[in-house]
Amino acid sequence: MRIGVGDIRLFFDADGAKLVPDGPWMRERATVLLLHPGPGFDHGLFKIQLGPWLAAGTQVVYLDQRGGGRSDLGRPEDLRLDRWADDVREFCDALRIERPVVLGLGFGALVAARYASRHPAHPRGLVLTAPIARVVPERSVAVYERLGGREARAVAERFYGDMDERAFGDFLRVCFPLLSGYDLTSDVIVRADWRPEVLIGWSVGESRELDLRDELAAIRAPALVLGGEDDAWAPLDSVREVVEHLPAGTRFRSFPGARHSVFRDAPGAYDELRRFLDELQDGQAA
Amino acid sequence: MKASVRGIELFFDVDGPKLAPDGPWMRDRPTVVLLHSGPGIDHTFYKDHVGPALAESAQVVYLDLRGSGRSDWSEPEHWTHDTWVEDVREFLELLEIERPVVLGTAFGGSIALLLAARHPDAVGRLVLVSTVARYVHARAIAVLDRLGGPEAGEIAARYFADPSQATFADFLRVCVPLYTRNPLPPAAIARIQMNFELIMAWERGGARQFDLREEAARVSCPTLVLAGEDDPSTTIAGAEELVAALPPGLARFERYADTGHGVFRDRPEAIELVREFLAPSKPA
Question: Chain B window 157-186: which residues touch A at a Cβ cutoff of 8 Å?
Fold first, then answer.
């Protein structure tokens, strides 16, 4: 399905009913909105494991964010974090989705954080998976080198430096596969409906000036932060930086050996997510 | 979720993804839009069996029609077939749901049929469950008489002659339990958000005027018709009349012996036929 948001249309998919029979009642389940990595990618990677797992107990909404997947590209000047964040709010308003739990991975976690700071009363909860507050190239380069040796280091340095098409190609070939414990190419890339120019535009553009540290304190929704200790996109120090700037008491867990695909690489992440969702549910009941 | 359509908000729910990983592809699964019976009851009776069974191989969209359930109830002057049909058409357009399978039960089947007849591009396939071309009270009374004895027939006759809170109460007590062999559990009835005013308005007006025979001839998509031979509400005679009004050879007609209203309560296995009938709308 697609729905109009501003001047574009956004693709979304859903799984798991919102209302389920429960004795003489229809019980309302939480809505979990999933924000994919990227930008320029699509929601497909969530369909492999996390989405179906969530759909057993919640209504999952998969969104292709502006510029990726089956959603419209829109105007080039709208490919910026504020717009992606406000799209989340306006998408929910268009479908009367109230108080969603918003789960973002990587870039999707940045969108989730910006959305939650601009619309603090809107989310019921936030799950920031592999988030960063800013890009610190030397932290990422160090992890790429640890996982992929000197070639990975050199390719990553060019990706964070004067990136051109060649450097981007090398990055996809050498560094990208290091972001996951499983075969990203056959599991994600082959099925994705993605626009590399959007990812490149972000990588050489806004991402380089990004700094979320100050605005994280404005987030009011209960948050869970999950990180992979071998994630080159969101190195552990960068994830910790996010946690330090979020309100005190934010739950944080990192997983040894997990890369950017935290839920694929660390089954323990599901236990954390289950606990977090249960607590949100109890909080609502109280 | 809700969608803004023609000045009101329609509640809908979704189960089962549209796109599913399938080897190196994302495969498009069919979309089935479920239209509830009534009018004045809601989508929830599909949530026990029909919806979850179909969600295994399709994206199921449950819709509460105007005046029903969690959708805006709107005003009595808008409780017409023309309005309900256009509401559904615009709902599909708004969400870019292209050529879905539309499955309707009883009243919902009549909306599905009119949608397919008036907007052939909007519907890919049609499943009409316990749907009749028109309501002939004498047929319903005869079935109730046969199943429940003369008291049931008389109570139904009184209700049809004068639909009111008092006659409806007797009808609910004596006649509705005869609708199916396997009775609807009280909990399932409690879950329905009923619009009593609409139920009465329909019984006094819409149900009497309504005749699908002419428009049924304009349906052009593949159609599956399921009917129970012991259905006191939408009778087998009414279903036969509907099938006869559809273009020759278009419909597959399945009739079930010892089966009441809604078919699936007495014949849960009939859902397999519907699953076979679902075809992917297009390759991914």
Answer: 186
